[in-house]
Amino acid sequence: MALIVLSNATLAFGHVELLSKANFSLEAGERLGLIGRNGTGKSSLLKILASSIEPDEGTLQFQQGLRVATVAQEPVLDAHATIFDTVSAGVSSIRALRDDYESLSAHASSDADHDRLEAIQSALDAAGGWNWEQRVEEALHRLGLSGGEQIANLSGGNQKRVALAQALVAAPDVLLLDEPTNHLDIDSIVWLEELLTSWRGSIVFVTHDRAFLNAVCTSIIELDRGQLRRYPGSFDAYQLQKEQELAAEALANARADKLQAQEEIWIRKGVEARRTRSVSRIARLEALRAQREARREAGGKIKLSIAAGKRSGKIVAELTEVSLAYDRPIVKNFSATIMRGDKVGLIGPNGAGKTTLLKIILGQIQPDEGEVKLGTKIEIAYFDQMRNQLDLDSSLEDFISPGSEWVEINGERKHVKSYLGDFLFPPQRASSPIRSLSGGERNRLLLARLFARPANVLVLDEPTNDLDVETLDLLEDLLQSYAGTVFLVSHDRYFLDQVVTSVIAFEGDARWVEYIGGYADWQVQRQRVQDYQAQHNGTSSPSAKSKAAIQPPSKPASPPAQGTKKLNSKEKQELAAIPDQISTLEKEQAEISLLLADPETYKTDGARVAKLQARFAEIELLSERLLARWEELENKS
């Protein structure tokens, strides 16, 4: 039986319909990644599932006794409470049980008292309530929080961490998480991934972190044009199926448009050619017109381009044995040479000093020791993760082009409303105040202003927060082809791998080291160094599991040496049959995907859903085995 079922839900704000007769269900143990364009209603859907708001139409059903915990995108917390007390509120019922036990055990005398003690003890055993303080402290430690600090003194990012910790320690049946990775460093994100993948309950989470989606989700739920569609498997599997769906939809729409155009021509000619026209054809044309009017097109694409500045010198910055300390060492003996066109990612935990090191590289902070030489003709443009550049009372058009109706991009003049349209802001919103924008829309606006400024050095501080997946893909493509230099501070591992050519990573004790490649390359290189040090220091190396998790993909096996045994007739038949076997499995998997994407499947038979999901996973495993066997036989032939 499903834990939560939402049926025929409709939700609209003004003229914008976020949900249109949408259906949703959540089964026990599922981890559903909810994705969609900025502004499509993902956070609103989570609020409906949390019973914070009600849909305009439709029904919401919960399994009896279901415990749900929510982490909002912008949580509201008691400013006067401490972090420890706030997080402990997540286990308030367990704390009350233990208080009752301790109070009752001090003066229990009757049989009824002892029976009550036994019942409380059983409840505490089941809930793990004897060590609730340890659970709270563990969550605080993993999320980098100090229990004694007041909420009022925290940044918005740290308040999000507190809300996340509060939900995690509650150990609910269902977790609803809205952008849980925002403001977390990579170590905290990896810890959260491990926690959620071993979570006994069910999870629905909104995120645009594609590595996080791949690691955590069992299915993708896409909110697109008011409808919810389910795609079993990882985010990578969703991308493949979605690409096929969009191609099929475009083809079907093109056919319908062509048929409508033909019928329009026929009906116009019919006036001249005959007095009476086919009633059925007229009715069909009216139906085509109605379908075309009702069709909700896929959202437009953002058009990204950067106003290129003058070409900088070949060397952008050269650092030699640079050191800096404030109340503690921030950088020790760091040396690096940044060349024109380099794409450099800065990786490290929150508070390590990434922004400080970046300012040293750009000559904005002078080091205590060492030398920094800046290149010539450097023009820098900044993207600030804290959005400090935003004047919330300013209009969108004034923010992009103060005092002018025009912007110039690579020598081409463009009206500011048209330029905002490239970033999916309609003309009627150009005069709206910035405070009316969502978090993702504000990030989009910052990108619009950033790219309107001529620059040959881009500094991007957490640019991926709140951006939808499609915008992230386009931003990746743009930065890859950008001829200037990029400095990227990000905890988005997937984005780092797609964009940067090198990383500067924090190695502890104010030590920073430069590595060639992206995030995954840094992991592999760092692991090799650690293994080498472990062997020569006589310490044990990391577990085989941790090694396997970061090793690069193995190269295909080399062709057999001369004299190696060739394929026999049975193996030749097996090799010839494998492509058809894989094709059959892929066809079956596609049919299962369609069933699992249909909300009706979940209404009629819950047991069948479980069987379909199990078969989908089984096909994945069989396909992998066949591919491995295919490669083995190919190398032997």
Percent range of helical residues: 40-55%
The tally of strands reads 20
Report how far the terminal alpha carbons are from each other: 51 Å
Shape summary: globular
Rg calc: 29 Å
Poorly predicted sequence stretches spanning 5 or more consecutive residues: 271-277, 540-564
* Adjacency order of strands in the biggest sheet: 5-6-7-3-8-9
Q: What amount of the residues lies in strands?
A: 15-25%
Number of helices: 21
Biggest beta sheet attributes: 6 strands, mixed
User: Please, what is the average pLDDT?
Assistant: 81
What does this structure look like?
The chain is α/β, with parallel strands linked by helices and 637 residues long. The chain has 21 helices and 20 strands. Strand 17, helix 15 (469-481) and strand 18 form a beta-alpha-beta unit. Helix 3 (92-105) packs antiparallel against helix 4, helix 5 (132-142) runs antiparallel to helix 6 (156-169) and helix 19 (569-597) runs antiparallel to helix 21 (606-636). It is globular and about 85 Å long. The two termini are 51 Å apart.
Keywords:
alpha/beta; 637 residues; six-stranded mixed sheet
Structure summarized in a few sentences:
With 637 residues, the chain is an alpha/beta fold. It contains 21 helices and 20 strands.
Topology, pairings included?
Blueprint: E1 4-13, E2 16-26, E3 31-35, H1 42-49, E4 57-62, E5 68-71, H2 83-88, H3 92-105, H4 111-127, H5 132-142, H6 156-169, E6 174-178, H7 186-197, E7 202-206, H8 210-216, E8 219-224, E9 227-232, H9 235-273, H10 279-294, E10 315-325, E11 329-339, E12 343-347, H11 354-361, E13 369-374, E14 380-383, H12 396-400, E15 406-409, E16 412-415, H13 416-422, H14 439-451, E17 457-461, H15 469-481, E18 485-489, H16 493-499, E19 502-506, E20 512-516, H17 519-537, H18 544-550, H19 569-597, H20 599-604, H21 606-636
Parallel strand pairs: 3-7, 3-8, 5-6, 6-7, 12-18, 12-19, 14-17, 17-18
Antiparallel strand pairs: 1-2, 1-4, 8-9, 10-11, 10-13, 15-16, 19-20
